[in-house]
Amino acid sequence: MAPSAGSVKQQIAKLIEESLRTTVPDEVDVEPAIAPCQNPKFGDYQCNNAMGLWSRVKGKGTQFKGPQPIGQAIMKNLPPSEMIESCTIAGPGFVNIILSKHWMAKSIQKMLVHSIETWAPEPPVKRAVVDFSSPNIAKEMHVGNLRSTIIGDTLARMLEFSKVEVLRRNHVGDWGTQFGMLIEYLFEKFPSGEVSGDQAIEDLQAFYKASKQRFDSDPAFKERAQRAVVSLQGGEEKYRKAWAQICEISRREYERVYQRLGVQLGEKGESFYNPYIPRVLDLLNEKGLIEESEGARVIFIEGKKIPLIVVKKDGGYNYASTDLAALWYRLNEEKAEWIIYVTDVGQREHFEMVFTSAKQAGWLPAEDNKYPKASHVGFGLVLGEDGKRFRTRSTETVKLVDLLDEAKNRCREALVQRGKSEEWTAEELDKTAAAVGYGAVKYADLKNNRTTNYTFNFDQMLNDKGNTAVYLLYAHARICSIIRRSGKDIEELKKIGTVELGHPDERVLGFHLLQFPEIVEEACTNLLPNILCEYLYNLSEDFTRFYTNCQVVGSAEETSRLLLCEATALVTRKCFYLLGITPVYKI
Ligand code: ARG
């Protein structure tokens, strides 16, 4: 595999950096300011350093008379490079750069030969934790957990593509006082002590509700439940067993969701960190961070009125103490350099307080652009079509599995209506329905800026027109069929053919393909999957324009154009992969 030379943007930045060293040798630490041109008429990239430099050097007896001459000099001092076709100066010294078509074509060809892995970005970390999905045992796995599962998986995939080792952590809520009541209720239903209640407590949510009702209405039960917590935390065999059983039933329910979505997760629940809490609190205490307040032990945070409670009045630990222990563990035992938490925006405050405590303790650097780093990835609510919090049908809870199955069934129905049940095997039909149905649910979520609320609507997400996974999957299948119908061996063409970008629409498409590495990098750095979705949608539009205006099969440029089709298919598939969507090859 050829080594990655960095994204096009990075390569341009390197050239500009060299030029800056010659242009303004006395100004150290000037970062090259490169952006894609807003208007492609003027060029592909633009260097915006001149203005900022002018305000730095003027009055220092500089040879330059204004920002424009600085721009001129930056342009003149660019080292010769086969990347660049030409440059122009615009306005007060912007340097517009036009890439060489020949170089662009060669870069695409290299990717075709050496695989798209050579286009992976290179982030500055080796190991990351992505804490996502993380439902609470015995409570409903709600659409919020689904959003976290979908967004977290994509972020993990983008980092993995970038060769970061990712610890995919399911931080399940498997600890806390609610287990006393659940265990006690389990004993009540199975007095023999022989807990074989798989069937009897299959519906854990109903079980949770019933036990809560007992807890709230019967003081004697409540007392027993409170004692059960102590027995559980003391490690008594009978209680541990009951607890483990309840966790196992929940787990089976989550697994059904993960299996449909093709999501891998390693469980390290809240209970895992429980033994670490006392030591971690000692460490924080030694730094003088923990204080007494109204009977509780707390950490006061700069800029916050309310402190972070780390030991409750009754001496018990809570969500925050667990997260502090987990953060300590991830930094010190797992040696993660980037720790990413995916939850709804409602938990922003909690994570801000935990991260600030860690900074005050010196576990994390104070500056946000340094590593190790902790990031909270917050997302908005899922709304129903009525604009209220999403719920399915009459029941108040959403069975996520049913929701996913409905997406798949609707897709199967649409395929049957298009006559595919006669054309395809049952297995093909099933696989395609699953790919399109689950893909549609994921894409509908990921294409929005995650911080906004989004409306769950089957009709919209399953539409085969517009910005949906269905449209994009079909577009991909169409590209594959163009290549198939040409009757050419594409692997052979990769070896002998050359890519050319003669037609303006070919050049636009080629440029878009080349931007893939910097887009993944941007989506990854900002933890925003919607950037990748937008890129993918625009790619399919650029492809359509190319295909409408440039004859592929039977033209003089057939080989080059087939290679361009293949490059588009490869980048599209990589986008699908990063978004957790299974591609389809025929429609
Ligand atoms: N179980 C929590 C919930 O359902 C999410 C946990 C997120 N991760 C964490 N380390 N706090 O809201």
Provide structural commentary.
Keywords: Acetylation, Aminoacyl-tRNA synthetase, ATP-binding, Ligase, Nucleotide-binding, Protein biosynthesis. Belongs to the class-I aminoacyl-tRNA synthetase family. It catalyses: tRNA(Arg) + L-arginine + ATP = L-arginyl-tRNA(Arg) + AMP + diphosphate. Residues 10-99 form the Arginyl tRNA synthetase N-terminal domain. Its EC number is 6.1.1.19. The protein has 587 residues and is an alpha/beta fold. The strands form four sheets. A five-stranded parallel sheet has the order 7-6-5-11-12, with helices on both faces. The chain has a four-stranded antiparallel sheet with strand order 1-2-4-3. It is flat, with a radius of gyration of 28 Å. The protein has helices spanning 8-23, 49-57, 67-76, 101-114, 143-161, 178-189, 204-217, 219-233, 237-261, 270-273, 277-286, 319-332, 348-360, 400-417, 420-423, 426-446, 458-461, 469-486, 490-496, 504-514, 516-525, 529-549, 558-578, and strands at residues 34-36, 45-47, 84-90, 94-99, 127-131, 165-170, 266-267, 290-293, 296-299, 308-311, 338-344, 373-379, 382-383, 454-455. The longest helix is centred in the middle third of the chain and has 25 residues, at 237-261. The model has no long low-confidence stretch (mean pLDDT 93). The site of arginine has 10 residues, from helix 12 and strand 11.
Strand proportion: 5-15%
The total count of helices amounts to: 23
The helix-and-strand class reads alpha/beta
Mean pLDDT across the residues is 93
